[in-house]
């Protein structure tokens, strides 16, 4: 397998605006090694979330290519793209997006359910991940019974349950107080080291970005060393 988890070459994203168009980025290149963490910062509206969604196959580029674990996303059908995301990627957002009617264990196990894993096996794996993120005793609690930091830890466990090569994070500490954000940052770095998982983190938090292996600035449609 290639050392590159993600390779993006010559990415372009343009939106039509009436008779004209708005170019978010053009000729943008990005690559990510196995086990590497990258923080991407930039002003609001620079296109950070758009870039993250394209790297994760949730949005399509106007031009260029994204290769995820050796597969060109532009050549995938919708069903193949869904399988690829389920097998190789985890996602964490500013808002946890947990399902309120399900317990923490069930929320973490959800990607395994979707992948067809047996319920008992899925929930055993979910319980292990909850233990790993410090929530072993909270598995039967629903999101409404958890604190903001606990809900984000559940979201991180869910992102990791399929043992993905890469986790894509969009402002993962944006809704947390300073102390809780610091604990989430420490957890991410521990998981990167212990599991050899790659992380791409889009954030306004310069301190968080600075703790990544690389920090990049998205400005004027290009990624530059931060």
General description of the model:
The radius of gyration is 17 Å and the shape is globular. The chain starts with a strand and ends with a strand. The chain has a single domain (4-225), classed as 3-Layer(aba) Sandwich (Rossmann fold). 35% of the residues lie in helices and 29% in strands. With 226 residues, the protein is an alpha/beta fold. The strands form 2 sheets. The chain has a 6-stranded mixed sheet with strand order 6-7-8-3-9-10, with helices on both faces. It contains 7 helices and 10 strands. The model has no long low-confidence stretch (mean pLDDT 87).
List keywords for this structure.
single chain; 226 residues; alpha/beta; Rossmann fold; six-stranded mixed beta sheet; 29% strand; globular
């Amino acid at each position: 397998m290639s050392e590159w988890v993600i390779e993006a070459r010559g990415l372009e994203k343009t939106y039509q605006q009436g008779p004209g168009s708005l170019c978010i980025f053009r000729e943008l290149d990005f690559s990510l090694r196995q086990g590497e963490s990258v923080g991407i910062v930039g002003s609001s509206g620079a296109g950070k979330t758009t870039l993250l969604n394209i790297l994760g196959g949730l949005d399509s580029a106007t031009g260029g290519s994204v290769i995820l674990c050796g597969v060109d996303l532009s050549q995938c059908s919708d069903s193949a793209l869904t399988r690829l995301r389920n097998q190789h990627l985890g996602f964490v957002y500013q808002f946890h997006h947990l399902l309120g009617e399900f317990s923490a264990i069930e929320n973490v196990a959800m990607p395994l359910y979707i992948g067809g894993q047996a319920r008992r096996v899925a929930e055993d794996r979910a319980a292990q991940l909850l233990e790993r993120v410090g929530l072993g005793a909270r598995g039967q609690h629903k999101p409404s019974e958890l604190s903001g930091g606990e809900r984000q830890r559940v979201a991180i466990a869910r992102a990791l349950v399929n043992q993905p090569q890469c986790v894509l994070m969009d402002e993962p500490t944006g809704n947390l107080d300073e102390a809780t954000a610091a604990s989430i940052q420490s957890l991410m770095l521990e998981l990167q080291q212990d599991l050899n998982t790659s992380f791409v983190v889009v954030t306004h938090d310069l301190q968080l970005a600075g703790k990544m292996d690389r920090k990049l600035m998205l400005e004027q449609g290009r990624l530059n060393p931060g």
